[in-house]
Specification:
The chain contains 7 helices and no strands. By secondary structure, the chain is mainly α. Helix 1 crosses helix 2, helix 2 packs across helix 7 and helix 3 packs antiparallel against helix 5.
């Protein structure tokens, strides 16, 4: 991993931790998914695994967790892998004309789609975990019990979906807009320099 990537990755980790602790807007409304997908898209698979693992570890130390962490942490790690596969900048689709407005639009739409996929995956995996690890006897170890666990998790899925659609979309729109403006400003400065040199 390049040293230049460490500072933005650290920034993503800090934001994810803050959203899980001090700026916690509600159950399952979090920035960890956005941070994971951003890291996967722009900093590769290592970034997509490092950000959620570190953010979850630090925030769980601060706010506590139960044995469900096995499912929550692994859910985010899988999201990192899926995000890299879908959004990674090394993908052939993004190698050419990387900074065109059309490609940026595609990236934002794919990121929004990944936010939805991430919410559904997190819901399915962690509610399965609640059913498997249920030590309070809330859900019987039957198919009916598993279905009940999924039904009880629907309000959390709704909050997570809304949060991810907004946060992931906004994050990628902001980043891609910034990248476009930055590239355009570089070319403007080059043109100005070229015209003054002539």
């Amino acid at each position: 991993m390049k040293k230049d990537n460490l500072l933005p990755l650290l920034f993503l980790i800090i934001l994810a931790v803050i959203f899980r602790t001090a700026w916690h807007f509600g159950d399952n409304i979090e920035f960890v998914t956005s941070a994971t997908l951003i890291a996967s898209a722009y900093f590769g698979l290592k970034g997509g695994l490092l950000v959620p693992f570190t953010a979850m570890f630090i925030s769980d130390v601060m706010i506590g967790n139960t044995n469900i962490f096995i499912f929550t942490w692994s859910a985010y790690l899988i999201i990192g892998v899926l995000g890299y596969r879908a959004l990674g900048r090394k993908n052939k689709k993004f190698k050419k004309k990387n900074d065109s407005l059309k490609i940026k639009g595609i990236i934002v739409i794919k990121a929004m789609g990944m936010g939805i996929v991430a919410s559904l995956w997190f819901y399915l995996w962690t509610n399965f975990g609640v059913w498997v690890l249920d030590s309070w006897g809330m859900y019987p170890k039957t198919i009916h019990g598993l279905i009940e666990a999924y039904i009880m998790g629907l309000p959390f899925l709704k909050a997570n979906l809304i949060g991810n659609i907004i946060l992931v979309s906004f994050s990628f729109i902001f980043i891609e807009s910034f990248r476009l403006l930055w590239r355009n400003s570089e070319s403007i400065f080059r043109n100005i320099k070229h015209s003054t040199d002539v």
